[in-house]
Amino acid sequence: MTEPHAQSEVGPLHAALLHRPGTELKRLTPRNSDQLLFDAIPWVDRAQEEHDAFAEVLRNRGVEVLLLRDLLNEALHDTRARAAAALASVDELKLGEDIADTLRSHLSSVDNAALAQILIAGMTFEELPAAEGQSLVRRMHHPHDFAIDPLPNLLFTRDSSVWIRDRVAIAALAMPARRRESALTDLIYAYHPRFSHSARAYGAHSAPVEGGDVLLLAPGVVAIGVGERTTPAGAESLARSMFADDLAHTVLAVPIEQARASMHLDTVCTMVDRDAVVMYPAIQHSLEAFTLRPLDGELKVSGPTPFLTAAAEAMEIDHLRVIDTGLDPVTAEREQWEDGNNTLAVAPGVVVAYERNAETNARLEEAGIEVLRISGSELGSGRGGPRCMSCPITRAPLHP
Ligand SMILES: NC(=[NH2+])NCCC[C@H](N)C(=O)O
After folding, report:
1. How many CB atoms lie within 10 A of CB 240?
2. Which pTM value belongs to this model?
3. Which residues are named in the active-site annotation (predicted)?
């Protein structure tokens, strides 16, 4: 078992947290999919097959794949974890006192696997245990309304926690549909024996920061996208907390368009080698960054300057190579939307990518990057690629 440690985006990947999608995806309907942040209704069996294949590609490259459901089950062996789980998932303001009580006692009576299932897939009013007495809430809700919301976006384990060196930052997720996810990662890292010695870098009750916005460009250098999800206050407070813990010496706060297509920095730019990124061509020349450094206990903010220059300088390299995908704007836009730029490096110069982005992948290969293709026709319906679907826990250090 390897100790948690991550200081780059491309160091050989030894352990990663994934979530095999399940019943929570079956909760998606055309009526709720927008709110639950999916663009289509996934075919769940096929999504599971695609996910199993993704996990297999990682295992074949020596990666230990940790599945969120297993970790959750194991963490729930601790009674404090069970109590925390109930606290995080029973919303008394939504359910009213009676149902909240019934639900709490139900949650305390089921076994760990059943509890984990409820935490992940949620519960509808019709699935609530029967109770004595009349409840207005129960009578007035539609049977298919959620008493506990499902978490279909748990699939994107990247967003709810981030390992920075040997510490874990629990993300403060911006969208209501995803907030409860960090309660689960919080609980896993607090109560699973594997992580009992791990220290924290940032708390879930802070300003919004999502892991998809956090890029570990090099040891001590972290880029944070600021846009639809991570707020300026979130970036600033994560930067402060990393400086205080000596986890970083430079943070680049990178403004990105507040749009669905570019909800996180990793939807437009990911690292594919120690000095190279793949980037959506339309933003290559316009992406900027504010540079943050600690100075006598305060924050020193400079810029904005072009992102590529600021990044190279902070990383102490001559320049950060951009793999020129050379795509025409229409192909580039299509492949960006389908997560063509959202690659997961398993080692320097070796990345996992969706096979459908044929042009982007071809250009990566021309530039000497090895591309491990996976299919994602169903997985991609939530708008996330291989990077979004993985939370690296251990990466070997990069040797110069
Ligand atoms: N790191 C990422 N790009 N994650 C993608 C998350 C997609 C998810 N449906 C959401 O909207 O939140």
Report:
1. 17
2. 0.96
3. 388 (amidino-cysteine intermediate)
